[in-house]
Write a structure and sequence with these properties.
With 589 residues, the chain is α+β, with helices and mostly antiparallel strands. Strands 1, 2, 3, 4, 5, 6, 7, 8, 10, 14 and 17 form an eleven-stranded mixed β-sheet that branches. A four-stranded antiparallel β-sheet has the order 9-15-12-13, covered by helices on one side.
């Protein structure tokens, strides 16, 4: 009997080991999910606004690839461990099946009796150690190191807002974005990507959190469309309809809001909020219809409709012009003016360096005069400039015209995140209207930078020793720079005061990459658009010879729809140009 109990206990041990394996696997999945979520939500001081620079985002792809390799190594180690345990279980299963048929006879053989004692006393302990061995140390260690460089909520929200900005600027419908069939993207490209229901729902939620009910409706409708088409998703239809009906109600469309609420209740009759909304919407709709029958449309409703119309038109006429030009519309150049634009070989009044090898100059626009220089910077020079700039890319800043100090600029989406002058304090602040990151390169840092500066001086005839350092910018997801002036206006008396070199007389802009779609430099006041062309540079004067600002030079960088935009620019100042560009007597001279 005792012998039979020993064999039975061995079977129980096998079952115990199997249960531990299963429990270990479940615990791993739970730990992995927690780690993944914590990594995605983790915020830390090392965060660097990834969404504002495509150049820096490329590092994240290699980080993710490294993590996938580490995860696969972990999976192999777990599979190897489980294979060893499986082989042990199969061997013992066969042995115990035979032994339990005649326990006493089996243990009557002294070798079997010895091996049973040995297994239970030694070998089962080894199996237990194997099952409890943690194979995830290497992966978890790597993940912990890498996650300090992960994007955070700000990056995810920034990238989402960039998609909404591209949608508005280029008049893209949600289906086009969701399928990834963007202008400039070939259907044969291996990296064309589409949005899932969860992705569309997330975009709608981010718009909802900003009280942007217009975009909430668009993206919740797209999520619902994909669910209706049979796409499998962890996001349920009821939740989507809840957001959708409310966002439509907020835009004053009661009938449609009521329609979606009824559909929600057909799926979940006990939905508390939807039942309350149903009664409220029906009451409000009855009031509205009664008022319409009596032809008493209130002034409040008219004002609300006007506000919604204005919201969808983005308020400002300049923004309409800007977005039109970004789409290639509204360019104001008559055939007569077009006939006055030429291409030529340019040697800058027989400059010794360009006498035998003049540069190719093309007139891009007449008022203001914008010229483009072709093949003005070579591939090696562009790569060296990017190499020097990339490690120091920071969110763009702007110069505050009162104090002259750099501050974060919120209107530029490129990398250092751009700086602009704050009109109240004069300090350079991070530009919130510029989604980019940029870096400054001094001439002494590398011979290539010095050579580029000298080239700008030789071609323009302007002294660049008083110019600002070469600024290199890389634009991020939907990267843009909204309409702005490069020069300081009369209401900014202390603009560039800290530099002591006067106002910005001219701008030189290198294009260091081609852009598949979007990314043009546009001049809303002039109705001009200049497309990025790798290896070229454009040049214009910001000031008339009289020193007065040329307000037609107000310009903007359109959002990058598809591609990676690298530019570098040189802002040339007034000091040192006294004999190179003499003053004019008239205001517009």
């Amino acid at each position: 009997m005792k012998c039979g109990l020993h064999v039975a206990r061995e079977e129980e041990n096998i079952d115990c080991v199997v249960k531990k394996i299963r429990r270990s696997a479940m615990e791993f999945r739970s730990v992995w999910c927690v780690l993944l979520i914590s990594c995605l939500l983790h915020k830390n001081s090392a965060h660097n606004d990834f969404f504002t620079s495509i150049g820096q985002m490329t590092d994240l792809l290699f980080t993710e690839k490294d993590l996938v390799t580490s995860l696969k190594d972990y999976i192999k180690a777990e599979e190897s461990k489980l294979e060893q345990v499986k082989q042990w279980a199969v061997k013992l299963d066969t042995l115990t099946a035979t032994a339990t048929q005649d326990p006493e006879g089996f243990l009557g053989h002294p070798v079997n009796a010895f091996k049973l004692m040995k297994r239970l006393n030694t070998e089962w302990g080894e199996v237990e150690d194997l099952v409890l061995r943690d194979m995830s140390d290497g992966f978890i260690s790597n993940l912990t190191i890498q996650r300090q460089y992960f994007p955070n909520d700000e990056d995810q929200t920034g990238a989402a807002k960039a998609l909404l900005r591209l949608q508005d600027t280029y008049k893209l419908d949600t289906q086009t974005i969701s399928t990834g069939d963007l202008p400039g993207v070939s259907s044969e490209l291996p990296y064309k990507s589409s949005l899932t229901v969860e992705d569309c729902f997330e975009l709608g939620k981010i718009a909802y959190s900003e009280a942007d009910y217009y975009h909430t409706e668009l993206w919740m409708t797209q999520a619902l469309r994909q669910l209706d088409e049979g796409e499998e998703s962890s996001t349920d239809t009821v939740t989507v309809l809840d957001y959708l009906s409310y966002s439509i109600y907020q835009q004053g469309e009661l009938e449609r809001a009521l329609e979606y609420t009824k559909r929600l209740l057909s799926l979940d009759p006990d939905h508390q909020r939807a039942n309350g909304n149903l009664r409220y919407f029906e009451y409000q709709l009855a009031k509205q219809r009664k008022a319409e029958r009596e032809q008493k449309v209130t002034e409040e409703k008219k004002e609300r409709e006007k506000r919604e119309t204005d919201k969808k038109k983005n308020f400002l006429p300049e923004k309409w012009k800007y977005e039109q030009l970004c789409r290639g519309e509204g360019i104001r150049l008559t055939p007569r003016r077009q006939s006055r634009l030429f291409c030529r070989f340019f040697d800058n009044n027989r400059h010794p360096y360009y006498l035998l090898g003049p540069v190719k100059q093309e007139d891009e626009w007449d008022r203001p005069r914008i010229v483009r220089y072709h093949n003005i910077i070579n591939e090696r020079e562009m790569e060296k400039v990017k190499e020097l700039a990339k490690p120091r890319l920071r969110r763009a800043t702007i110069s505050n015209p009162i104090t002259g100090v750099l501050e974060t600029a919120q209107y530029r989406i490129s990398k250092r995140r751009a700086t602009v002058h704050d009109p109240q304090t004069g300090k350079l602040t991070t530009a919130q209207y510029r989604v980019s990151k940029s870096a400054w390169l001094a001439a002494y840092e590398h011979p290539v930078v010095d050579r580029i500066n000298q080239r700008i001086q030789d071609i323009t005839g302007l002294d660049v020793t008083t110019a600002e350092e070469l600024q290199v910018a890389n634009y991020g997801v939907g990267g843009q720079y909204e309409p702005h002036f490069d020069f300081g206006r009369k209401d900014e008396p202390d603009a560039f005061k800290e530099l002591g070199t006067g106002n910005r007389i001219a701008t030189w802009l290198f294009y260091m990459s081609d852009v598949a779609a979007g990314g043009a430099t546009v001049f809303p006041e002039a109705g001009a658009a200049v497309k990025p062309m790798k290896g070229t540079a454009v040049f214009w004067y910001n000031l008339f010879p009289s020193g007065e600002g040329d307000y037609s030079t107000r310009h903007a960088a359109c959002p990058v729809l598809v591609g990676n935009k690298w530019v570098s620019n040189k802002w040339i100042h007034e000091r040192g140009q006294e004999f190179r560009r003499p003053c004019g007597l008239l205001l517009s001279d």
